[in-house]
Amino acid sequence: MVEFMDFITSHLQMVYIIVLMVFVGVEVISHVPAVLHTPLMSGANAIHGVIIIGAILVMLGVDPENYLALALGFVAVILGTLNVVGGFVVTDRMLEMFKKKKQ
Predict the structure, then answer these.
(1) Tens digits of per-residue pLDDT, 64-101?
(2) Phi and psi of 102, rounded to 5°?
(3) pTM for the predicted model, two decimal places
């Protein structure tokens, strides 16, 4: 716990920036119209491919005996993949809404 408090006090500006980013993000997202929310979120979810690549690269550089880092990397890859697939599914559903129905 002491190490955590030392980290927070030595990186206080970074903590302020993160808190400010959270408030600005919530404010920006709350003002997005409902019509635009789904396409924006599906596009943002697709960007998580960068997280998948980053997690794989981090896992390649980790010591094979460090099971915690490997497990966290594996979880990051799985969650990032689920997010990417979900983004594409939502986009596909939205595009289906604009197709003409067969009679």
Answers:
(1) 899 998 898 899 899 888 888 887 787 777 778 777 77
(2) -75, 140
(3) 0.56
- Are the C-beta atoms of residues 77 and 49 closer than 8 Å to each other? no
Cα distances from 38 to residues 32, 35, 53, 97, in angstroms, run: 10, 7, 25, 13
Give the integer Cα–Cα distance in Å for 100 and 103: 9
If DSSP states are collapsed to H, E and C, what string results for the chain?
CHHHHHHHHHCHHHHHHHHHHHHHHHHHHHCCCHHHHHHHHHHHHHCCHHHHHHHHHHHHHCCCCCHHHHHHHHHHHHHHHHHHHHHHHHHHHHHHHCCCCCC
Write the single-letter amino acid at 23: F
62: Cα within 13 Å, side-chain hemisphere: 17
Q: Please, what is the end-to-end C-alpha distance for the chain in angstroms? A: 66
